[in-house]
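Minimal example, chain plus adenosine-5'-diphosphate.
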Amino acid sequence: MGNKIYELPVIFCDRIRLTEVFANLVSNAVKFADKQPVVIDIGCERNGIWYEFYVKDNGPGIEERYFEKIFKIFERLEKRGTSEGSGAGLAIVKKVVEMHKGRVGVKSELGKGTTFYFTIPAVKECLLRDMDSEDSARGDRATEDSA
Ligand SMILES: Nc1ncnc2c1ncn2[C@@H]1O[C@H](COP(=O)(O)OP(=O)(O)O)[C@@H](O)[C@H]1O
Ligand SMILES: [Mg+2]
């Protein structure tokens, strides 16, 4: 079997937090894997001003009725003690992605696998524009305070 090589884009982001997003998604894909060979596919597609990243696995899958629940902090679908983890991973993923103005989602078919995907602005200015307005808002308040 050949190795697929994906060229992931260079993005403007909080590097440490975005690394944590990938680490959480990949470690889940590894942790819940239930069949050999384990196949994990990481990629990205451009969609207008957004990059849509995905981490796709061929694991057990997740029932659609749990799609919202898994993103809540400390929610896990397994019984306690059956796998390592606090149930905070996906809640952190969602929080970090939303900090970058993106959205997270999940597609899955039971028994076949799961794809987690998230969007990040492809255009640096989209992130900066908001940061600038937040900075100037803070600046305004600071001026008021010192007046
Ligand atoms: N790739 C996956 N395949 C199957 N189930 C998953 C996958 N990723 C997450 N889950 C389910 O979502 C739950 C929440 O994930 P997460 O917040 O990372 O918590 P943790 O990894 O600590 O269990 C997991 O406990 C598991 O039930
Ligand atoms: Mg996890």
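The longest strand covers residues 113-121. Strands lie at 40-47, 50-57, 104-109, 113-121.
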